[in-house]
């Protein structure tokens, strides 16, 4: 199977090593990043969701308006929009962009953040609600006549959407979460299950759990891995850059005065468990930033020359990963470097791998 690359477009130019500007959104940055990712050869870019951030659907629509080929993956949290409305919003944008929309469903792992939007449900309740939410979304996209739905969290009568996804294969649903509740929902609904940059052993385990859950529904999802590649012309230079990134991130963290809290979500706990094994794992996996920030989000890296990092990514491909969500600590420069030095190498390795398999 061909490999897919997803980038990341923030609302402003910031990262663990770049201080956030005072404005909440910088449209010049969004436009520049969108055009850069398209020219670099990315298939899609992720637009994140947070209880304090600009609305991801609207930012993604703006990025799509300044590009012609780049797909958008919109992070969306169930529970605040009616699922029937979300289904029509995404289908409408899918038509406006001629089939470039995907959605990344984020159920939410922090009680504190969810309560900022007025959500006081438990984790188990949130995942049960998400499953019903996606039942209704899929029904809106597929139904040829009005339908009823009766669940614990959602109930509809004569629901119907006149607008369907642009392409016959529909709008891809990406889904993440490592708890037992999340895996159950992923098995039922995920077209692509997304996990963070774990060790080879952890990835094998995660894929096995999701495949088993999906098999009960007769489904075979694909898999995505999120990483922060650090590349340089030599291996020594790449590790030196990783050291500088860690020091810059540590300085910025100290200046912010923020206290790193223990994570509530299982995905972050898994990354911290990996970090506890050491800062350098497997061939090229680096856990320095994950340990520093409490594994908040996508925070593990592959470090080395472009050839070395591409080779490590091929290892993950062989485990079953067909999508890589990659973003750098210098968002614009790294996106350019990935497009020039990394994406072509990984695609060439995958093409050779699949060609040899076909020949065999």
UniProtKB/TrEMBL annotation:
One GO term of the biological process aspect: alkanesulfonate catabolic process
Stretches assigned to the Luciferase-like domain: 21-322
Membrane spanning residue stretches: none
Pfam families: Bac_luciferase
Keyword RNA-binding: no
Keyword Oxidoreductase: yes
Name assigned to this protein: LLM class flavin-dependent oxidoreductase
Alphabetic keyword roster: Flavoprotein, FMN, Monooxygenase, Oxidoreductase
Organism of derivation: Lichenicoccus roseus
GO molecular function annotations of the record: alkanesulfonate monooxygenase activity
InterPro entries assigned to the protein according to its UniProt record, in alphabetical order: Luciferase-like_dom, Luciferase-like_sf, SsuD_RutA_monooxygenase
């Amino acid at each position: 199977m061909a490999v897919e690359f997803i980038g990341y477009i923030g609302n402003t130019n910031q990262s663990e090593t770049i201080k956030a500007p005072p404005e909440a959104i910088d449209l010049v940055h969004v436009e520049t990043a969108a055009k850069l990712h398209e020219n670099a050869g990315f298939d899609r870019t992720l637009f994140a969701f947070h209880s304090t951030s600009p609305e991801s659907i609207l930012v993604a629509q703006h990025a799509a308006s300044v590009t012609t080929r780049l797909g958008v993956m919109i992070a969306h949290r169930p529970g605040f929009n009616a699922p029937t409305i979300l289904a029509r919003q995404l289908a409408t944008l899918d038509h406006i962009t001629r089939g470039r929309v995907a959605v990344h469903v984020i159920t939410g792992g922090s009680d504190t953040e969810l309560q900022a939007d007025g959500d006081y449900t438990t984790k188990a309740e949130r995942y049960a609600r998400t499953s019903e939410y996606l039942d209704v979304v899929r029904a809106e996209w597929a139904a040829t006549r009005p339908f009823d739905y009766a669940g614990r969290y959602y109930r509809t009568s004569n629901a119907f959407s006149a607008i369907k996804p642009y392409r016959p294969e529909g709008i891809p649903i990406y889904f993440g979460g490592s708890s037992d509740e999340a895996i159950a929902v992923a098995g039922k609904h995920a077209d692509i299950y997304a996990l963070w940059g774990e060790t080879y052993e952890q990835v094998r385990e995660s894929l096995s759990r999701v495949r088993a859950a999906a098999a009960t529904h007769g489904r075979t999802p694909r898999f995505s891995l999120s990483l922060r590649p650090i590349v340089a012309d030599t291996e020594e230079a790449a590790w030196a850059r990783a050291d500088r990134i860690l020091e810059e991130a540590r300085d910025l963290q100290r200046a912010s005065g923020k206290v790193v809290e223990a994570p509530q979500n299982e995905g972050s706990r898994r990354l911290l468990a990996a970090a506890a094994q050491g800062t350098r794992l497997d061939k090229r996996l680096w856990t320095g930033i994950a340990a520093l920030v409490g594994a908040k989000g996508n925070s593990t890296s592959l470090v080395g020359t472009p050839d070395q990092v591409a080779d490590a990514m091929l290892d993950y491909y062989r485990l079953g990963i067909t999508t890589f969500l990659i973003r750098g600590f210098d968002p614009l420069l790294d996106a350019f470097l990935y497009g020039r030095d990394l994406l072509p190498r990984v695609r060439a390795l995958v093409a050779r791998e699949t060609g040899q398999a076909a020949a065999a």
